[in-house]
Fold these 4 entries.
Entry 1:
Amino acid sequence: MKKIAIIGAGSVVFSKQLMADILGFPEFKECTFSLMDIDPVRLGMIEKVAKMFVNQHGNTAKVEVTMDITTALNEAKYVICLVQVGGYPSTLVDFEIPAKYGLKQTIADTMGVGGVFRALRTFPVLDNICHNMEKLCPDAVLLNYTNPMAMLSSYVLRKYPGLQYIGLCHSVQTTTKQLALYMNKPYKEMKVKVAGINHQAWFLELSHNGEDCYPLLNQLKERILNEPDFVPEHLYHYTGKDTWFRENFKESAADTFATDKVRFEMLNRLGYYVTESSEHNAEYCPYFIKDEKLIEKYRIPINEYIRRCKLILSEFEDMKKMINEGKELHVDTSEEYAGYIMHAIETGIDTNINGNVLNTGLITNLPDKCCVEVPCLVNRNGIQPTYIGDLPPQLAAYNRTNINVQMLATEAGLTGKREYVYHAVMLDPLAISMLNLDQMWKMCDELFEAHQELITI
């Protein structure tokens, strides 16, 4: 019986989706879910949800819960990491302390000072997972969904090269669906080739039924950047409200397009469309958040992740009430990669994903041993990254501004040297646009003090 350990399973909103996806494959009808979390309330809730899903699918899968990581990992074949170390209180700190120094952020989970300190909190937990995997399930596949993806992935891949690891995100699927909707094309008929780094990978190819879609996308770009109120007419009539839409769009398709100005601006300047949302990408560069007029022009939601955290907490409470009242919870299957990867490994049927892996000559004009996001083939031979070669030079150069920060933060975790943390923040494009060196140093000092119980360097 295949054992699937989910570490951080108390992240109910996401773990329920992954279990629904996995249970949709007949190869996992007799699997064992080992759900691990440090929060007993959340653990009890996800246990009820998991058993409900098993019954809904008519499967004989088993569900076990534990607060002990060794119990969860023992003889596991797949390990899914969903941890958010420090939870909402630490997230607030990552926003509030930088704000004192004048640094505005939107998401703060991937880059910048927020991403760096989230990585520092997560490194020790990853060590615990990986050390125990080496002893208890050395042949298991570790599928990591926790951010900051590039920093954490390069840390694991460099420190634990014997483990099978892949870093997973859904920005490629989500953005492809968004672009299909923007251009009024069927998503299932789109063909893409995407490569770069996590949250800043590039649509090197974008086509529909063999026809290049960039001319149409560039027409939309000209209108959204030059006509403040422009939205394609068909988006006003889009009524899709599936799980994917609810979790990745704003109030409507029209509103989502209207607030996606940063990515269209970067398309205008660099010639390629980037994965991940405009609110994310606004803080990966020095161009937008530094000026209130620009924030208003590009409709950038400052402190957006705090708003989302509150929504997720509210959704958890609603779900808890629903489950406690004995009501059924139904979740649509999704485009998340985890289930497809596991299915491909079990059956040998090829699947293609985009994954975060160590750069071993895959993208030839990005640094060796940084983390890159590239297409990967998955089957019984495991996860096989695809060679890309050179990115267009402007894209590689732009990626390197973020890679500098990611590699220094990783180096801090690997060596235990705090000075690399200050150097990482010193080179962060957003911090550079707002803060002087003294402010950066004092901000880091205060964040180290605030997070001292969770950081080991």
Entry 2:
Amino acid sequence: MVQEVEPAVVTVVGTISGHATFFGVTSDQEVSGSGVIITEDGYILSNNHVVEGTQTLSVILNDGTEHPAELISRDVFADLAVLKIEGQVPGIAKIGNSDNLKPGETVIAIGSPLGTFRNSVTVGVISATGRTLDSGEGYAIEDLIQTDAAINSGNSGGPLLNLTGEVIGINTLVIRGSNNSSASAEALGFAIPSNTAAMIAQHIIEKGYFARPYLGTSYQNVTPRIASWYNLPVNYGAYITGIDRNSPAEISGLRPGDIITKIGDVSIDEQQSFINALFEYEPNQQITIEFTRENQIMTVEVILGEMSTP
């Protein structure tokens, strides 16, 4: 099975240009990760964090040959990117159904740890499904697959396979410990489910981009501590600090100082952030937003706009 899938697994190499500092201009930096070929015409799935900020990209195939690659588009919020190479491809990976995964099922990860050990193979099990991790950027990455198959630096973007050789996840990160604890951890790897990755990749291949719903607000998350400090009327929500001109938020009548507490049927609370609640809906969909203004609970109808990753 590994021999059959390996030709579709690639090493992704990018160059980040140097930048000016007080001490002069830094040298260009090379970064690397992994990817997997998913179509005959050379489309490749990888991670956004592998390609973010790169000026040039290339792909090293299983036989060691290197080819220039084009970044088609990416989705920051799912940490996915779609690249393309020209010419004949050495292999195509088959996408499986990640909804069928169960804890304890054996899985195999293939990737290029440290950018040097190309197409390294590790084996483990599905530890859990449906995991949620805080990105640290105001949103959570949801519905992740947790596995104890070794995922090291450079494995990002490579496939997680079931025993029939189907891609059931795209490896994205590993956790070594908690920022709030001195305890360390091993075998905590995470992958984006193949159903999510395939859906986003299909949109990017067909449209050239993947769109998320757009409201047009800048905001500050409200927590019980912040609510207590500022004597706010709710413990959870999104305090609007700014409104984009001509945005759905401005057109609907939302104003800075409003606190959004519910988007459609999804309440903003300890488990559900504002951005993840918003992402439950589609661009151009009409929804009801519940918010508080001067201690009064109000609602407004909004037709969501469209936002894509630059």
Entry 3:
Amino acid sequence: MIPKTETLIIGGGAIGVCCAFYLNALGKDVLLVEKDDICSGSSYGNAGLIVPSHSIPLAAPGIIGQGLKWMLKPHSPFYIKPRLNRDLLTWLWQFRGGCNIQHVRRSIPVLHHLNAASLGLFHELAKLDGLDFGLEKKGMLELFNTRKGYDKGIKNIHLIKEFGIENRILPLKELTEFLDGIRTAAVGAVYLTQDAHIIPDRFVQQLAGYIETKGVRLLTSCEVLDFGTSGRYVNRVKTTRGDIQAEEIVLAGGAWSTDLARLLQFKLSMQAAKGYSITFKRPAQCPMLPVMLTESKVVLTPMEDTLRFAGTLELSGFDQTVNLGRVQAILDAVCAYFPDMDPDSFELLEIWRGLRPCSPDGLPYVGRAPRFDNVIIATGHGMQGISLAPITGKIISQLSTHDNPSFNMAALSVERFL
């Protein structure tokens, strides 16, 4: 007998699980399938940041020139594996098209609106029975250890303030107090007042457990192989665990969504961006809030009894090997900002890498798919997947009931690069 469901969600990361939560809350029958385990992808080991203040998209002026310089350094924050790949070249051309101030100004209110709404939903989710995922709204520090980096950072702060995003430039004396006396080589700092952080894997796994008690079916080790269609309707999903019939399908497969989109006969412009994190047992001297090492693109996040260092953006396809040189570059960056911190003396818990789904313009894809009326897309969140997960789930639930979300959905259109 072929399993049937009202709504089938493909993908068991933060986005998919949040979609399942909000669709289930509407009373819908929901089945979620995941090719590995729940929270086995980029939702697991990221920096856990919820970032209303980080509203400048990845595609921004100056990033092309900076990226070319970084490519000459093997352990830089940004790396593209040299290869003749049509999808990569198309993505890079589209990315180049977004690296202008007009795109940035259009995107800032979109990202801020989404992230601010998502933070509110995180506070609501934290009140659910059995959920304790370490939500803390302490803000975040941006540190700069070069005058050039600091000047650029202050320029960005003035830019986002034009859109009502308030932050504070910190005197160095006050910075010492924020860091609880930890010595730093920073020449300047900014306090991002609106940001928060969580323990990401705990959030996803606990929320998945919660929705399961509410009737959501979770089917892991279940890979989607193909779709059966009739006109503008997907009437069957073929998986490694058998066929499934669903009235509506939500595609939330992260970086793997490009392959699923091809099966649905449309192209989703996206690249898998590998990121790394190193998690230690929390040392005696530890920042009390997340810290961005701005020039190195590394984040330090305290997570209860652990401390996580996360960073890098590596476009190397679906290669999931661990490059120890890039791991070491993250650790070296920490020492460059905090001379008294010695990661070699910390108790290592885990080295992790994951593939984040990056669109060319730094905005996610959220909306109905072309060609098929019963397919909704929720992917392409880049480095903000965990931050935007609740609001994405909420929007998907609204689209499913044909409500009009109060967001600029045109900016998130699945068809904007077709």
Entry 4:
Amino acid sequence: MVKGALQDTGYLAVAGMAVQSITGVRTTVCYSKKSVAPFDLRAKRAIAVKAHLKGQLSYRFLANLIDVVMPRIKEYRGAKGTSGDSSGNIAFGFTPEQVTLFPEIEGSELNIKSWQ
């Protein structure tokens, strides 16, 4: 989810390019299902991007994540054991500063800092 996408969909485009360069897979846009008043979120608004990884791409992403990115994060506490489901899916997040630790993003001109 990209918090800045609530005000400007340009943030979503930057997030999509970043996820696409990290994973090597085309991203899809996710839309909100319900309106949530405290978060100023309306139904059917684009708020996130996702990438579906299979096969070698998923192994390459996991190896890159575990061997390169996570050791660079000083105070990363890891992903909770309850953040997955029975199908093998797991969800965890990074701050914009932590996303810049991926080697595919380091030399890039993407403006990751503007996600917030």
